[in-house]
Amino acid sequence: MSTALLIEQILNGLQFGVMLFLMAAGLTLIFGVMGLINLAHGSLYMIGAFACAAVAAATGSFWLGLVASLAAAAAAGALVELVVIRRLYDRDHLDQVLATFALILIFSEGTRWLFGSFPLYLDIPSALSGAVQLPGGGRYPLYRLTIIGVGIAVAVGLYLLISKTRLGMRIRAGESDREMIAALGVDIRTLYTVVFALGAALAGLAGALVGALQSVQVGMGEPVLILAFVVIVIGGIGSIKGALVGAILVGLVDTLGRFLLPKLFAAFMGPAQGATAGAAIASMLIYIVMALILAFRPKGLFAANA
Amino acid sequence: MRDGQAMSRETLINILLAAALLALPFVAIAMEEPFYITLATRMAILALAAVGLNIALGLGGLISFGHAAFFGIGGYVAGIFASHAFNMEPMFSAPFEFSGSDQMPVIWLAAMLVSVFVAIPIGAISLRTSGVYFIMITLAFAQMIYYFAISWPAYGGEDGLSIITRNGFPGVNTANPLSFFLLCYGVLAVALLMFWLIQNSRFGAALQAGRQNEQRLAAVGIAPFRIRLVAFAISAAITGLAGALFADLNRFVSPSMLSWHMSGELIVLIILGGTARLFGPVAGAVLFVLFEFALGGITEHWQFFLGLILLGVVLFARGGLIGLVAGKARHG
Predict the structure, then answer these.
(1) Is residue B37 one of the residues assigned to a domain?
(2) Exposed/middle/buried for residue B62 (C-beta within 10 Å: 0-12, 13-18, 19+)
(3) Which among B51, B65, B281, B287 is least buried, having the fewest CB atoms inside 10 angstroms?
(4) Is A124 near chain B, with CB under 8 Å?
């Protein structure tokens, strides 16, 4: 195994982790501020990807598609919050799970109705289609590096938004005491809608960015959603920092596990058997990591006060 | 302790539901529509799975979003046992040689044991947490088993595993749809009886008290953790048994039985019927299969409308079907 290959896999893990962070940040923000568990977050990811693919196909511009994905996901998020989610804040988690499960059925089947069952394809924009020379001799796609960059930029932006701006101050206040912030005259309902739309836009962005790497199809959001759950459970629900650490951890463990475990098992059990056993264990690896972390820290690594 | 009026009304609905489900296959035979027998069997099996989940979710307030794991494990036990028995190759040879089985009693026992065996570590870790964490962790564990089933090629992997001939039961011709339905119906009846016994036992009282007020339960000297773990394991065993029957109904088991959609559907069954009601899962399963069948006949996008209906039930009709017809829940 060459160093170049290993570096490539580490970068793949980082790119995967950063993409998970975009999903997990919204989920954890929505839970932290509103106390809401949102299963339909994966649908917003899907909406972002479909909006990007549809607009890019119609206009020929990936960048317009990217703008459309942000707008469509944020709009869908705001609409869903106003019509459905708003009624769920006072309900128990069971009702929230069911209502957002129902939303998944509606969004998935609705998208299938509009776009059909065949996947759409989204091309990587030509400005980002090249590869970059890595130290150690390998080459790595520029587009994936850009995703890592976008993810880091979003993480920094979210940090600044939450710690430095007035909106961020209100979000933090809403996390710690929602009655008090409402009593101080902040329009808490609008704040909730804004937070939900922000989380939705991040999910839409993730969907659009990944849409150019994979095919854009109904149901694409669900595996990512469940991984994002694992991320925020590991990181501590409500903590953005936890989401970032958890996302990078899950991204690296999953990618490197799939890469290294079959080789490791093959060394002990022979190539054919080792490869299947390694692949099977690798597919479970992040859940094993999650179970281990929870066995010692039941509230996750960076448990928030919420 | 109980409001006599509402109780008698709910009991009446329960009896009507049980009778209607039992009558359905006979009506199907009279109408010469044998497919309806399969629908009725499907209702009975899904109801059984949801009765299992109702012990954890309804009585214990443990919102497990991962019960598909046990449903699928039961299914795979049936599939794997049957395939070994069919091919006559031993499953394992140490400490004793075992070459599978095509007899339902053996399969059922194994399905329940394996489910319990898996449920105890999952429960032991998940029950250290509560609320949203519990929901997400049970979901994650079920996904772990799902991905394992997909990536482990020995038993079909992603393609699933066929059961060539339906497994047998001593003295019953299981290939006959009506006999198989009656068998499933009988198992469902036993499970309902067990649910009722648990609900009215000291154990059940402690379990329900833990849902309502954990501190108070701890204050009278009962540790909630062990009670919940036992409830979780019993719940998993019943759902696993349902999975074995479901695999035999379809004569096929695939990772989709383990998928999180399945976990969601099991919760939906309970909520449609009415949480923590004895017959809630039965009402929910009957409604769900009817929706699936009726809507599926009208449009291929039936899940869209199922979503709308479900959303309506959650937002506006709390208490489910039985709650709607029989009035508010007794207490809790």
Answers:
(1) no
(2) buried
(3) B287
(4) no
